Amino acid sequence: MYCELHTRTNFSFLQGASHPDELVRQAAEIGLAGIAITDEASVAGIVRAHVTAKE
């Protein structure tokens, strides 16, 4: 079981490139147990990741 604990999305300016929903879908596709969204100075990506994860 593996869980990525340092994931930045495009909400971390100049540090992440992927959208939160893309990261959640990709993590599920490759069989990760979970991911941790660790954006800097924003929690906006967490909401989108959570909505996608619930689907």
Please characterize this protein's 3D structure.
It is a single chain. The chain is α+β, with helices and mostly antiparallel strands and about 55 residues long. It has one domain. It is about 40% helix and about 15% strand. It has helices spanning about 20-30, 45-55, and strands at about 5, 35. The chain has a two-stranded parallel ribbon. Helix 1 (about 20-30) crosses helix 2. The protein is globular.
Strands ordered across the widest β-sheet: 1-2
| Total tally of structural domains | 1
Instruction: Please state the structural category.
Output: alpha+beta
What is the C-alpha radius of gyration, as a whole number of Å?
A: 10 Å
Relative helix content: 40-55%
H/I helix tally: 2
- What's the SSE pattern? EHEH
Question: How many DSSP E strands?
Answer: 2
- What is the straight-line distance between the termini? 22 Å
Sheet of most strands: 2 strands, parallel
What sort of overall outline do the alpha carbons produce when their principal axes are compared?
A: globular
Low confidence ranges: none
**Approximately how much beta-strand content do the residues carry?**
15-25%
- On the 0 to 100 scale, the average pLDDT is 93
